[in-house]
Amino acid sequence: MFGPRRVFQSQIRHLANHSKTPSRFRYNPTRNASTAAQAPTAQSSRWPRRLIYAGIFGSLGISAGKWMDRKIGEPAIPGTEADAMELEEINRVYNFGLPIVQELRNNPDYVESDVYQNYTDEEKAHRLTSGPLAGSRALALQKVFWNEKEKKAINVVFLGPGTEGWPTIVHGGALGTVIDENLGRVAIRCFPERTGVTANLQLNYRAPVYSDQFYVFYSTIDQEKSTDRKAYVSGEVRDVIGRVCVEASGLFVVPKKLKLQRVGDKY
């Protein structure tokens, strides 16, 4: 919207300056006939400006209409053609439109992976984040960049309109679920058992998180405090320009009396 708005403002300034300038075509009985004959030309010269205004307002109206249609319209149902088209566009932006993705791919310390590679399609369907929250309407995309040296994960996530609480704002509980998983991934990779559960999770919401946007989740383990059965992990959620939206910390443990499924070496 910034482009059209700047064009619109420049046109308004031009109109204001023009209105302060004495018109060359006011009636003057002393002018000769050839000068007076130029008046119709002045009137006709207004048409290009009117066409510019019409184009500007028309473009703004179309953009606003599309935005409103997207916001108030029903999100695409997973598995439909509309959902596939949305996912294709989201993946295109991820691959070619996010500088942080290119930066991480060029860093040899980070390895890129998909999420839920350890689960079958049937198992994914019964998990909250890969079942009910699947598709372009919710968790449309999750990619993990793992740094083995620093025991650190950077996760790029797209949060669709199905994660909203208030209109355009991601629900705090949905956001907490994604944060819990991202912190837990780091903890589990550091446990010899390759499994674990959340014992404590603390969140500090600092700024709104908007739907239909990409966000970056940072997770790091405290290697000095952590053991083979306890992991202290901290993290942040940032938007694509680096603003901190959520601060988080968690304690993850491997239960002694409860036998859990081994997650595996992937995500």
From TrEMBL:
Compositional bias segments (type: Low complexity): 33-42
Region annotated Disordered, chain positions: 20-42
Domain of life: Eukaryota
Annotated Thioesterase domain residues: 169-244
Name of the protein in its database record: Thioesterase domain-containing protein
